[in-house]
Amino acid sequence: MSEKNSSNKGPMAAMMAGGKAKDFKGTMKKLIKYISEYKISVFTVVFFAALSSVFSIVGPKILGKITTKLSEGLIAYVFGTGLLTDFKYMGTLAIVLVILYIISALCMYLQSFIMSKVSMSVTYNLRRDISKKMSKIPLNYYDTRTHGEVLSRVTNDVETINQGLNQSITQFITSIATVIGVVVMMLSISWLMTAVALLIIPLTLVLLGGVMKKSQGYFIAQQENLGEMNGHIEEMYGSHNVVKAFNGENDSIEKMNTINEKLYKSGLMSQFLAGSMQPVMNFVGNLGYVAISIMGGYLAVKKVIEIGDIQSFIQYMRNFTMPLAQLAAISNTLQSTLAAAERVFEFLDEEEDTPDKHFAKFTDKFKGDVSFKNVSFGYNPNKIIINNFTADIKSGQTVAIVGPTGAGKTTIVKLLMRFYDINKGKITIDGVDIFDYTRNDLRSMFGMVLQETWLYNASIMDNIRYGTFDATDEEVINAAKAAHCDEFIRSLPGGYNMILNEEASNISQGQKQLFTIARVILANPKILILDEATSSVDTRTEILIQSAMNHLMEGRTSFVIAHRLSTIKDADLILVMRDGDVIEQGNHNELLAQNGFYAGLYNSQFEDGIEE
């Protein structure tokens, strides 16, 4: 459950949890490399963003001229000197103003559309590269990390990059262009008023910085608590039967209330502080408006500026404070984006499996001889667990791998299929080193039935067909009949077209096992690997399945990982493992005669008739 929890906290949780990138410059360079593929589009975005800002900035200046012309006419009318307002002039300016705002809106729409396309293209490429990378990374990477940690890089982190690019670049360009343009327009009206307006910047930055610094901790706590709550709810839902069976309802509710209380407190403070930013900006802005109004009135009386300039300047003041706040917000978004990008690039930079040899070839002349020659292996190179293991398996022989729980019985299989590469020695199939096959060709020789069944959210027909995608419906049904699951499949709602849910919990564990056996029968592999394949079925079905598997094993080299030793007495070779190493090998009678570890295991299972 914990693996899933970590993948369900959402993009914002990833952003908050990610903090700041450790290698800011290095991550930025890698991200720019992805963006540079669309540099023409980015330059187009910059052009339209700047154009949009210019057109919107010119608006208040024109509106000020209209205000000045209107005020002149009204003053003339009040003092009885006539109505001097030039409505034609004002109408022309109004039309120009509307046209400018329409062009500005159009430019803004185009820049938003293009930037959305760029950000989605970048994230598409990242997901594509991650998908390719996932198949190239050694299995050890996945064994040492939770599924949620890996999935979050494909989902949460990439989505964070998408949102960050889409928001940050356009807002940054627009904000910078707006600030520069506004300052230029303000200077064109009055340098003195501009100097007064710029005095509020330090005050604004200090107040906003204080609020954002204070709120950041609460936002992080809020997202962590939210993730904890989502994880707890999912865990309790997924383990509902277990919770009820062990009377864990009260503990679950108590834990939920504790998390909910923490989420309430952190959420309240984070939202309060975030909501206070606008009032703080309004307060500072109002101080600026007062100062500008006083200064503007004085200059208007002195005939230094016109009345409409005051109105224009106040609008520019409003347009000036907004991009400053946006730039502050963008800096946090950029940090979160780079933190997410760093996690993605860390994954993409992970060490890959040794590449397949270019001359690797797959031959159809297959017999099934398998040989291990002086093989040594350790999951950690400094701790070798298999030492100088040698064995020769002839075509059609059955090899049983036995040992106590945790002895490392699946290690031999992992080495044979190159899920892990050996440290020393050589493994051959039909005399060809397994390193001389491509991984795809090598693994296509094997068919596996494991204790842990793997089914996915699709129909029963598609689940059995997985790996043999060109099989006909008739071939799938024949495989199901051989696995003795055709009858009960037809009794299910929808039969072969029944859709298994996400965790295949709408069928029993035994039924899942039968589907995987049918899948292997359909694949008709050259080498079989069976890991207690009938452990989840009833005795009657086990006998039927064992008969089908025995038929399938005829003429095929088979590796059987066994827990019940009575099932492998007839194996041609038995490998006995303890603490990860092969300590004994031979057939059943030879191993009993040695009176060693295998004999002890076998006799312990038959004491007092336990096995029988």
Number of strands: 10
Number of domains: 3
How would you describe the shape?
A: elongated
Lateral strand order in the biggest sheet: 6-7-8-3-9-10
Instruction: Tell me, rounded to a whole number, the average pLDDT.
Output: 79
First-to-last CA distance: 37 Å
Q: Count of DSSP helices?
A: 21
- Give the name of the CATH architecture of the largest domain: Up-down Bundle
CATH topology of the largest domain: ABC transporter transmembrane region fold
Short description:
64% of the residues lie in helices and 9% in strands. It is elongated and about 125 Å long. The protein is an alpha/beta fold.
Describe the structure.
This protein is of the alpha/beta class and 612 residues long. It folds into three domains: 347 residues, ABC transporter transmembrane region fold (Up-down Bundle); 166 residues, 3-Layer(aba) Sandwich (Rossmann fold), CATH 3.40.50.300; 79 residues, P-loop containing nucleotide triphosphate hydrolases (Rossmann fold). It is built from 21 helices and ten strands. A hairpin with a 2-residue loop joins strand 9 and strand 10. Helix 9 crosses helix 12. The two termini are 37 Å apart. The N terminus and C terminus are likely disordered.
